[in-house]
Amino acid sequence: MGNYVKRRLPAEPGSLAAELRMAESEVRFYREIAPEIGVRVPRCYRAEVDDEGSLLELEDLSDWREGAEPVAAAGLLRSMHERWVDRADVRWPWLRPIGAGDELVARLYDDTWPKLAARSLSAPVREFGERLVGKVRQVEARVLNAGPLTLVHGDASASNLRTAPDGEIALLDWEDVSAAPGVVDLTWHLVSSVEPARWAEALDAYGPVEGLSRYCRLPSCRDS
């Protein structure tokens, strides 16, 4: 089986990928962080970025099962977060900080929401979406109080997890790597990839989280 090759052309100026330097962040992750991260990620054989875009040549894990058991995934995230708490942003000061690109994200959300609202949405989703209009930057700022900074994946959904036949779990796709509270990874993993009936099980596996209740209340915006 050949290696997995990931090529990216230069991001369109003004796009979110350009604003957040997503391709560059992933290349730097594999060059600098992956060798000492302490959790399983694809082995990297080549990582380059230049005026023509970025190129990654990685271990091919396509024969591993997509996703992971909630308890095992929570344990993996906890291991990574504990290892780099209060260290990641010092060790790699180029890591994306909380609030990076928030003006662009807020503008894109406000511009896009009317199109989404025109679709057939459930009442809770519609209410949730409408409350965020004009408040995305305020919500983003509250993440600062959701716990100490650590290394976070940024998109720890099932689609970016792989489980080997022996149960080993790997984290893929590091374009959103950043320095933020670990609860950012945990809550996104729960809401994107875990049945609500298993949330308590996953939370128990992760362990105590200082800012979980605060972060999970972010979308309410009712006190804004």
UniProtKB/TrEMBL annotation:
Highest taxon of source: Bacteria
Alphabetical list of SUPFAM superfamilies matching this protein: Protein kinase-like (PK-like)
InterPro entries (alphabetical): Aminoglycoside_PTrfase, Kinase-like_dom_sf
Pfam families (alphabetical): APH (PF01636)
Domain Aminoglycoside phosphotransferase positions: 22-206
Identification of the protein by name: Aminoglycoside phosphotransferase domain-containing protein
Organism expressing this protein natively: Kribbella yunnanensis
